[in-house]
Specification:
The protein is an alpha/beta fold. It folds into 2 domains: about 1-155, Alpha/beta knot; about 170-245, Trp Operon Repressor, Chain A, CATH 1.10.1270. It contains 10 helices and 9 strands. A 5-stranded parallel beta sheet has the order 2-1-6-5-7, with helices on both faces. Its EC number is 2.1.1.228.
Length: about 250
């Protein structure tokens, strides 16, 4: 997969993507990253990329032409056209399901805004989708682009050392992840649950599913409200609730 990012801070995006699994994905040739600075496509001697907004008000608005030229150069870098995603607090909330859809695409082009944003005419004619990380405002789209790069890149085949890791993540199946434990078996903070030491794979699977259902019920009940549980899941969630109430006395 190839992901291109139009940004005023290409070094930030490059350095963020050089670490961890995303860096290894690039080294292995599983993910290709391109960055494009609109300043390189500005037509004036000052390499201006912004101007004051019509109608007055604070801040600056990013100009059409440098962004349009940068987007065109990014699109021309590969034969397959890329959908353009603008990272904006006004966009649709990014979800694991949307990340998984992005990971199926051969290309993705991320547009990072700055200042008061981007001229609306460019957004209307050049952007396919607006994505938000949540109901808050960042100084620019670079942090959001780094998040999208990481979330999408780790789902690409061969990126994670264990293919099942992504499948067991929170939200992968609509539930939060179950608790995880490692050595030592016993510690002053507590012991590892015995079922995980039993070697009984069916019991372990059942325990993990119950914990995932219970944790989702406790922390994100809205996810369960949107989900139709099968008979086993309803039974396990009922067990978790009873055990929880008993533990609380």
């Amino acid at each position: 997969m190839r992901i291109d990012v139009v940004t005023l801070f290409p070094e930030f995006v490059q350095q963020s993507a050089a670490l961890g699994v995303i860096g290894r994905a690039q080294t292995r040739g599983l993910l290709e990253l391109g960055t494009w600075n609109p300043r390189d496509y500005a037509s004036d001697a000052y390499r201006r990329v912004d101007e004051r907004p019509y109608g007055g008000g604070p801040g600056m608005v990013m100009l059409i032409e440098p962004l349009r030229a940068a987007l065109a150069a990014a699109q021309a870098a590969a034969a397959t056209p890329a959908p353009v995603v603008y990272l904006s607090p006004q966009g649709s909330r990014l979800t694991q399901a949307r990340v998984a859809q992005f990971a199926q695409m051969p290309r993705l082009l991320l547009l990072c805004g700055r200042y008061e944003g981007v001229d609306e005419r460019l957004l209307e004619h050049a952007v396919d989708e607006e994505i938000s990380l949540g109901d808050f405002v960042l100084s620019g789209g670079e942090l959001a682009a780094a998040v999208v790069l990481d979330a999408v890149g780790r789902l690409l085949p061969g990126v994670l050392n264990h293919s099942e890791s992504a499948a067991q993540d929170s939200f992968a199946d609509g539930l939060l992840d179950c608790p995880h434990y490692t050595r030592p078996e016993r510690d002053a903070l507590g012991d590892v649950p015995q079922v995980l030491l039993s070697g009984d794979h069916a019991a372990i699977r059942r325990w993990r599913l119950k914990q995932a259902l219970g944790r989702t019920w406790l922390r994100r009940p809205d996810l369960l409200a949107e989900r139709v549980l099968d008979a086993e899941q309803r039974q396990l969630l009922d067990e978790f609730r009873r055990e929880r109430l008993a533990a609380l006395g």
